[in-house]
Amino acid sequence: MTFALVFLAIIMATVIGWLLRQTLNTQPWEANDPVENQPGRGVISSDPAKIGLISFIAVVTSLFALFLSAYLMRMKLGDWRPLPEPNLLWLNTAILVLASFAFQLTRGAATRGQLLTVKIGLVAGGACTSLFLLGQLVAWQQLNASGYFMAGNPANSFFYLLTALHGLHLLGGMWVWGRTTMRLFAGADTRSVRLSVELCAVYWHYLLFVWVGLFALLLST
Amino acid sequence: MAYVAIADRDHEIEHHAPTTFITKYIWSQDHKVIAIQYAVTALFVGLVALILSGMMRLQLGFPNSFSFITPIDYYQFITMHGMIMVIFLLTALFLGGFGNYLIPLMIGSRDMVFPYMNMLSYWVYLVSVIVLLTSFFVPGGPTGAGWTLYPPQAILPGTPGTDWGIVLMLGSLALFIVAFTMGGLNYVTTILQARTRGMTMMRLPLSLWGIFMATILGLLAFPALFVSAVMMTLDKAAGTSFFMPAVMSMGENLSHEGGSPILFQHLFWFFGHPEVYIVALPAFGLVSDLLSTHARKNIFGYRMMVWAILAIGGLSFIVWAHHMYVSGMNPYFGFFFATTTLIIAVPTAIKVYNWVLTLWQGNIRLTVPMLFAIGFIFTFTHGGLTGIFLGNVVVDLPLSDTYFVVAHFHMVMGVSPIMVVFGSIYHWYPKITGKMFNQTLGKVHFWITFLGTYAIYLPMHYLGFLGVPRRYFAMGDTEFMPESAFTLNQSITISALIVGAAQLIFLYNIIVSLKKGKDAGPNPWQATTLEWQTPDTPPKHGNWGPELPVVHRWAYDYSVPGYHDDFIPQNVPADATPATSEHGSDT
Asked: Which candidate, B177, B74, B175, B164, places its Cα nearest to that of B130?
């Protein structure tokens, strides 16, 4: 559980540290009038949706950290036989990097209001992601074809489980991507999709980070 | 563009009031309606679980007298009772019910920041409840694995409900976690982002601090349950061996090998212990507000109470293995977890002292909510003290799996939070419905419940010392059990049935008062917090009319010298009182 604990400790330390800063040097029992047009002390200057996404990312981090903890604990038992990762995964990783890159470009274009670039970037990002997901499915096929079944060995089980979980999170992102893209092609201007694009970009970077971590762990064990 | 807090952008945000019956009461995005939906559903399944506990008590008090309770039924009742009470009643009611109702009202907001997701959260929760209850009607019935669902027995033939029950249970938990995550992201974001002008974090009522921290714990801890549920489902359905060791069952080797049941225990309790505080922290918060309001005195040590909540939240993640002292762990491990467990008693004790000191020299009004709040101090202290026994490895080993443990956790996280649930329902009932409940019936309900729980759980400590094991269907003829243990069991059963039946008084009271109750007025308890200052009672959609309230003071300005009332609402300007008031010192 050390792995999960480290991650959770970081998250909890951030949360509690921030909260503590709100509570120090305050005399809550003193009444006073709030200054006009000043947000209350401790308001995080950001859009609620961003705070929502960051909180969600903390939840997903907890989820993956716990799965990886389970992975590391289960690995120590005697029957663990590592499986050879298909080389296709390297290609998939490159594609996911491209997707992340596309979203980053789109994010910049959306801020500057370049409609065409946003459209191209979104389509490219979505296409790369779909390609990545497809590639993962092919990788599963290859493993299955060479006899590495889900229930054959815990290493196999974890491989399928972790890749599936990561893929599902990407699919969730694709839902938001789909809605944003549809809105854009139905004639929305860049200003109205800027937030969605930005959130997508953050989420894709995060899932790329998770995938790189997962892939590194799968390769090294 | 300079940043403007969402609370100050009120006029830019459109609030479409629902118009049809369906959007108003069924597919509603209004936090108050969702809160009531959550609470009613949770109380309904809680009632199911209460009936299950009555059936268990019948068997334990009068073994072999009831042909309709077989050992299989008994284990199914145990499992469903535990899981429903902990997850589907308490977690859902505190966070989905009280969290939803109180967060926007107490921070001076019109609604949650993501109302649609909030609605979705309730409906997914409802589906999870339905899936759970469906397991009563499938072949083999619900799972009888115990609420901890330990493998390998949870999915091996021989345990009740291994065909359908366990799958439905795991599926239902997964759905609940999805629902909770949607709700939880809402609660956290709303508290951080939608506070009205002047409502700093340190002016939040303690209710919200408790709910806030519990939500964070839930968001981070429920994934551990999700992980274990997914992996166990795969062990059951796909033949993997995450948790399943090589097992011979019915003379045959099963396909599993090499898995680790202990791994499940770690994951389960990594969720399971924070879960205790997911239930307890909202209770701590709510009870603080009840005590302060009904004692007409500011809460003692507000900042210390906040820090204690933060400390408990942080520590709750590093005590989980004290549930696993008997799992054969390394003794140094046990030493570590015993230490952290005892350390967590410090902030908890600070809270108990502060509650008692809040009462000290207060102008105590023994209203129904106050009775339940004071009852909570008793039951919680009681259950907390036995926790210190069980937190020590050497004391835990002989007491493990006896009725002492049953008594401990029922006192500390069964009865105590339920005391707060009742107290809080009575406290906010006038705001939610606009009507006052019947005080006499409320007091009868309190005294039967409070004294009854002692009649139930005090003797269980003694049974535990005798070594009477928990989870047994019937004791049979055992030498270590004196005659008195059997009579005690009968007495416990009778008390339990009386207490169970007394809950009908509560139901009768809150249902009949909807029609027949006297109009409560906007602020019957003369409380300071914002939810009592709404222009309408019950609050209408959007809560605040045209203008959002502005907050000038903390939530605990009770009995301020020099002011004509003994309470000053949070939205009363600072110059309404002498600037150098001497009412509060937080030391």
From this structure: B175
Taking alpha carbons only, the member of B266, B247, B416 closest to residue B329 is B266
Name which of B98, B94, B285, B103 is nearest B194 in CA terms: B103
Give the integer Cα–Cα distance in Å for B378 and B563. Answer: 34
Phi, psi of A117 (to 5 degrees): -60, -40
Of B230, B303, B581, the CB nearest to A28: B303
The rounded distance, in Å, linking the Cα atoms of B175 and B152 is: 23
Token duo for residue A182 = 């549809």
- Hey, are the CB atoms on B5 and A12 less than 8 Å from each other? no
- Which whole number is the average pLDDT over B172-182? 97
Please compute the mean of the pLDDT values over residues B343-364 and round it to a whole number: 96
Contact yes or no for B320/A8 (Cβ under 8 A): no
Position B273, amino acid = H
Low-confidence ranges of chain A (pLDDT < 50): 37, 39-42
Burial classification of residue B455, based on how many CB atoms lie within 10 Å of its CB (0-12 exposed, 13-18 middle, 19 or more buried): middle
Question: In terms of Cα–Cα distance, which of A141, A135, A133, A125 is closest to A89?
Answer: A135
Are the beta carbons of B302 and A29 separated by less than 8 Å?
A: yes
In CATH, the number for domain A85-220 is 1.20.120.80
Neighbours of B149 (CB within 10 A): 24
Buried b / exposed e over A108-125, threshold 16 CB at 10 Å, is: ebbeeebeebbbebbbbb
Chain A residues whose beta carbon lies within 8 Å of the beta carbon of residue B267: 66, 70
Residues A32, B552: C-beta atoms closer than 8 Å: yes
Contact B138, B164 (CB under 8 A): yes
Q: How far apart are CA A163 and CA A165, in angstroms?
A: 5
Q: What is the pLDDT of residues B255-298, one digit of tens each?
A: 888 889 999 999 999 999 999 999 999 999 999 999 999 999 99
B479 Cβ contact list (under 8 Å, min separation 6): none
**B470 φ, ψ (degrees, to nearest 5):** -85, 170
User: A13 to chain B: nearest residue by CA?
Assistant: B314
Distances in whole angstroms, Cα of residue A134 to Cα of each of A142, A167, A211:
12, 10, 15
Look up residue B253 and give its DSSP letter: E
> Distance between CA A143 and CA B362 in Å, rounded?
71
Token pair of B138 as six digits: 């499938």
Residues B217-251: pLDDT tens digits?
999 999 999 999 999 999 999 989 999 988 887 78
Task: Assign B226 to helix, strand or coil.
Answer: helix
Burial group, residue A216, by CB count within 10 angstroms (0-12, 13-18, 19+): exposed
CB atoms under 10 Å from CB of A92, counted, come to 22
**Sequence-ordered list of residues with C-beta below 8 angstroms from that of B5, at least 6 positions apart, any chain:** A39, A40, A43, A45, B193, B195, B197
Closest CA to B188 of A202, A207, A50: A50
What is the rounded CA–CA span in Å between residue B270 and residue B324? Answer: 11
The one-letter code for the residue type at A195 is L
When scoring A18, A30, A44, A66 by the number of chain B Cβ atoms within 10 A, the one with the most, hence best to mutate, is A66
Mutation pick from A55, A68, A168 vs chain B, by most beta carbons of B within 10 Å, is A55
Give the alpha-carbon dihedral of B359, B362, B368, B373, to 10 degrees: -20
Q: How far apart are CA B108 and CA B106, in angstroms?
A: 6
Nearest to A70 by CA among B550, B29, B60, B227: B227
Q: Give the other-Cβ count within 10 Å of A49's Cβ.
A: 16
**How many whole angstroms separate alpha carbon B456 and alpha carbon B409?**
13
CA gap B423, B209 in Å, rounded? 18
**Tens of pLDDT along A118-162?**
999 999 999 999 999 999 999 999 999 999 998 889 999 999 999
Eight-state DSSP code of residue A86: P
